[in-house]
Specification:
This protein is an all-alpha fold. The protein folds into 2 domains: about 80 residues, no CATH class; about 240 residues, no CATH class. It has 15 helices and no strands. Helix 5 crosses helix 8, helix 7 runs antiparallel to helix 8 and helix 12 crosses helix 13. It is globular and about 65 Å long. About 35% of the residues are buried. About 0% of the residues have low confidence.
């Protein structure tokens, strides 16, 4: 069914995800896809701009503003959840999470500083601007992985490009020079997908190993997965080292790269800040209403950032099928439904993989 849907141009992965994911989050995701796909978001942006002509609101930045508000609230929600136990958070599972987040934040600070030094960007900045750039780059990378990870966990979609573009626009408003902005785009773009993918892998391993029933076996399994990830990273580095020149020679750049370049060349002005701030308000409110578990604001913004009308209908169709299935079969039907959903997603993934391979072969022949 997944392959058949792919042949018809229907994103069956979205349909399958709707059968197993959080219903509230995916409802917002589907609504966001439909609102963007039907052009409603653009019309809302144009209406707001007409009501406030002095603010010079940009209708094209409605989804980005919603994501800014929802993302900031999501960050606060994660922090408050980790700290709600007070001094006791230092112990146990929550303590390990806090330690991991602190280690990650420190690592991003170090990486941002190292990248600035090795690239030579640091030598073109004043000491104050250098400190500001390193701090902002680390925060942007940390926020990027958090939001992309949450969105991927609930919907299976990575809004990595859009989040990186948001951090790029804000960085431009901060006055960072073009080379620094280029590094910022690369650094933030690299964090979210890697974080989400590793989360997928570790959670799949956790389920296959019995859900942590054997702690020693679980720890060893995670360690083996980490070694495998390092090996894959080394292989990917070699592949890029040997293949990048051919791609560059044939002007084979992914579309997001061209958008980043255009955003860096263009100077962000006050209307960008006003637009992001204006539309951040509804995003923040929705995220607060939904809470951390539902992630309604983040998922609505994720849908708004993706132009895929068919995916929106597929998500809503999946949610409707899920409701009917559970109404007829009850909780006993949940396991077969999840197995069916996994098959649909796998079929769609296989179709996408072989389609992309076929397209790449055709490009290289020409």
């Amino acid at each position: 069914l997944g392959v058949a849907g792919g042949l018809c141009g229907v994103p069956m992965a979205a349909f399958g995800t709707a059968l197993i994911g959080n219903a509230w989050a995916l409802s917002m995701f589907g609504i966001g896809l439909l609102v963007r796909g039907q052009g409603i978001a653009d019309r809302l942006g144009a209406s707001a701009a007409a009501l406030r002509p002095t603010a010079h609101l940009d209708p094209a930045l409605v989804p980005h503003g919603v994501m800014v508000g929802a993302g900031l609230v999501a960050l606060i929600q994660v922090g408050s959840t980790l700290m709600r136990h007070g001094p006791g958070v230092k112990r146990g599972r929550d303590g390990r999470i806090v330690g991991a987040l602190a280690l990650g934040g420190g690592g991003f600070l170090g990486i941002a500083g190292l990248v600035a030094l090795l690239s030579g960007v640091a030598y073109g900045l004043t000491p104050r601007m250098l400190v500001a750039f390193v701090a902002y780059a680390a925060f942007a990378a940390f926020l990027h992985e958090l939001i992309v990870g949450l969105a991927a966990m609930h919907s299976g979609w990575f809004p990595a490009f859009a989040i990186a573009l948001i951090t790029l626009l804000i960085g431009s408003l901060c006055g960072f020079p073009m080379p620094a902005l280029a590094l910022l785009a690369g650094l933030t773009s690299a964090t979210g997908p890697a974080f989400a993918d590793m989360g997928y892998d570790l959670k799949a391993g956790f389920l296959l190993r019995g859900g942590g029933a054997n702690p020693a076996f679980e720890q060893d399994g995670r360690r083996q997965q980490l070694y495998t990830a390092f090996a894959a990273f080394a292989i990917a580095t070699c592949v890029v080292a040997f293949s990048w020149r051919g791609y560059f020679t044939h002007d084979l750049f992914p579309p997001p790269d061209r958008v980043y370049a255009a955003a860096i060349r263009g100077s962000a002005h006050g209307s960008v800040a006003w637009t992001l701030a204006f539309w951040a308000i509804p995003g923040a409110i929705l995220q607060m209403l939904g809470g951390q578990r539902r992630q309604m604001g983040v998922l609505l913004a994720t849908g708004l950032l993706i132009v895929n009308l068919k995916a929106g209908w597929a998500v809503l169709a999946g949610l409707a099928a899920r409701a009917v299935w559970l109404a007829c079969r009850g909780e006993s039907g949940r396991s077969p439904m999840e197995i069916f959903a996994g098959g649909v997603i796998a079929g769609d993934a296989l179709f996408s993989f072989f389609s992309s391979m076929k397209a790449n072969i055709r490009i290289h022949r020409h």
